[in-house]
Amino acid sequence: MKLLTLFLIMLSGNSFLLESSAQVKSSGNILPIRGFCIAAPQPREVDTFVKFIDEELGPRTVNTLILRVDFNYQYASHPELKDSVALSKEDVKKIVAVCKKHNINIIPQVNLLGHQSWAGRIGNLLRVYPEFDETPNVRMPEKYVWPNADGLYCKSYCPLHPGVHNIVFDLVDEVCDVFESDAFHAGMDEVFYIGEAQCPRCSGRDKAELFAGEVRTVRDHLALKNRKLWIWGDRLLDGKTTGMGEWEASFNNTYKAVDMIPRDVIICDWHYERPDQTPVYFAMKGLSVVTCPWRMPGNAVLQAQDMVRWRQYATPEMKDRYMGMVQTVWSGAGQFMDVYYGKRPDSELNSPVKCFKALFTEIQNTSAIK
Ligand SMILES: [Zn+2]
Prior knowledge:
It is a single chain. The protein has helices at about 1-30, 45-55, 90-100, 125-130, 165-180, 205-225, 240, 245-250, 280-285, 295-315, 315-320, 335-340, 350-370, and strands spanning about 35-40, 65-70, 105-110, 115-120, 120, 185, 230, 265-270, 290, 320-330. It has about 375 residues and is α/β, with parallel strands linked by helices. The strands form 2 sheets. The protein has an 8-stranded parallel barrel with strand order 1-2-3-6-7-8-9-10, surrounded by 6 helices. α9 links the parallel β8 and β9. α2 (about 45-55) packs parallel to α3 (about 90-100) and α10 (about 295-315) runs parallel beside α13. The structure holds zinc ion.
């Protein structure tokens, strides 16, 4: 029996088995998305940022650059919304050119729905168009503290206001055009205010349906120009059941939207304190996903290894949904580059610079095993 089995394997299967196992190892180890996410630089920082892309991101085989632009661009469609100091078209084209040189896809981000204020400062959209505010009754505090009586983390716009999409989609189109992008990141993380009782349009509505409706509206708009929507994943996770809390996951039932949003939305699944296994959850729901670490090098390496392992052992249906890794940086580009180039100390055990280096060393080492 043993001999017969061996003979049959030699005759028909052995070379196939060897070959297919090598293929799995080789293709499974190369992550399709090797990303970096950071705030777009200030105009005075553009040249250093171009150098950083050219000398650091390119050689590390970064192929996706999520740039948080928000109002840091001189929008021609809505100059009333731009920051007082903002990138010019010429600035942007310098970034576009160096990214093209290294085959890096730029995905610009403008925060939609949530994050329309930060601490005690209102964002440009609601400052100029206060009628879009989901909670106009909540005044911005002189001195912001958390927790506070209003439950104010960040303001949101009302997704059912009839005028809001006319404005924000002009920004989305313009920023995608100038960055020559086939994808857009809408943020949509940490939305605490949604379906609020005092909103005449949203009160009483299901918060998951409101969230999913906004995702679909943005996705459908982008699809008109064959662009893909990327969002952060935290609103689609159940914060209470998982123990992940109300920032990293949802405490207001928006998590049920995971079954309502279009399947071609790409999920940026951020976990900074633990290498959570949530990408498996998203992939099993039919959603493509990238894992996003921030400042803990040890976790980032584990998360990259998980991603490679999931791709190796996934069904063909699931494998392509495990898209890769995106290093997130939450300081400004200038501050990050100052630390990177040694102009500021990097004394902490965990830091975005250390995490970025460790993550891409791991990605390059793993990819080298072919
Ligand atoms: Zn509303």
